[in-house]
Specification:
The protein is mainly α. It has one domain. About 75% of the residues lie in helices and about 5% in strands. The strands form two sheets. Strands 1-2 form a two-stranded antiparallel sheet. A two-stranded antiparallel ribbon has the order 3-4. β1 and β2 form a beta hairpin. α2 runs antiparallel to α3, α2 packs parallel to α9 and α3 packs antiparallel against α4. The protein is globular, with a radius of gyration of 20 Å.
Length: about 290
């Protein structure tokens, strides 16, 4: 993959704006964090459903209730996964999330069983996969903010665990792009022709080194969790990138959307993080 200065310039300018917005959402407070990932959640769902309609033309026939109910089931799940940091008066946001999830699920079931009077299992499977792919991931992301177990190594900062994970993904993706652009020669996968083994390995090594060395020697965090996060994120992030590339390839499109020049849409930008968040959460649960 030859290096293109114009492409790199466009990607860099977009990335700067993107980083400013992301950091504002991540660092301000728990509500900005929730708002940021709620927007990302719905953005990913809209693009995912567009891709599925291109992959399986029958999905165009699902009702509006089906399409939006599954999104709100996912968003309700996200809210349900929040912790005690999220309180609205005497109500916890987790309780509100459970209520939204329940109402949306009832609407989904009533629409499918009693209004349409038939269940198209293949189409429901597409929506179920979307829930696992998108909503489960962002639900687990909600648990990362302010998690007491994670704050033990994160210096007491509520936002640090998500920031470390996201930074691992950003460094891995950026370094893989740069290393692959300059020295990449060996194709990594037919699913993503521009990805090379040199770029993939180089990006992973640099991400692990920067996160682990920087975290230990600059911020004085513990080495073990940093290594656990960065190594898992590099592997799972690459898997997420390939999964989204496969979906786009099946749909016959280059990008999932056009919201970010040089980066595509929500799924293009968060494909690695979607899978990495789920896998890192599971790995962290069992090994830390």
């Amino acid at each position: 993959m030859a290096f293109s200065f114009q492409s790199f310039k466009t990607r860099t300018l977009t990335a700067i704006v993107f980083v400013v917005i992301m950091l504002g959402g991540l660092l301000w407070n728990q509500w900005s964090f929730l708002l940021l990932f709620s927007i990302i959640h719905f953005g990913c769902w809209i693009e995912y459903q567009k891709l599925i309609k291109l992959i399986d033309a029958d999905y165009k026939e699902v009702s509006t209730v089906h399409q939006y109910a599954i999104m709100f089931i996912g968003w309700g799940f996200m809210l349900w996964m929040t912790n005690s940091n999220y309180q609205i008066g005497s109500w916890s946001l987790s309780d509100i999330g459970w209520l939204i999830l329940t109402i949306a699920l009832i609407a989904f079931v009533v629409n499918e069983y009693f209004i349409n009077k038939k269940i198209l299992y293949q189409l429901t499977a597409h929506s179920l996969f979307g829930f696992i792919y998108i909503s489960l991931s962002w639900g687990l992301m909600m648990q990362l903010w302010g998690n007491m177990d994670h704050k033990v190594f994160a210096g007491g900062q509520d936002w640090l665990m998500p920031v470390i994970l996201i930074t691992s993904i950003w460094i891995n993706d950026t370094m893989a792009y740069l290393v692959g652009s300059f020295i990449g020669k060996t194709p990594f996968s037919a699913i993503s022709p521009k990805k090379t083994w040199e770029g993939t390995i180089g990006g992973a090594i640099l991400a692990v080194l920067v996160i682990s060395v920087g975290g230990v020697y600059i911020f004085h965090f513990q080495a073990k969790p940093l290594l656990l996060i960065s190594i898992t994120a590099a592997i799972a992030g690459t898997t997420g990138d390939l999964l989204e590339s496969k979906l786009k390839r099946m749909a016959g499109v280059k990008d999932s959307g056009q919201i970010m020049p040089g980066h595509g849409g929500f799924l293009d930008r968060f494909d690695s993080l979607l899978v990495a968040t789920t896998i890192v959460s599971i790995v962290f649960y069992f090994f830390w």
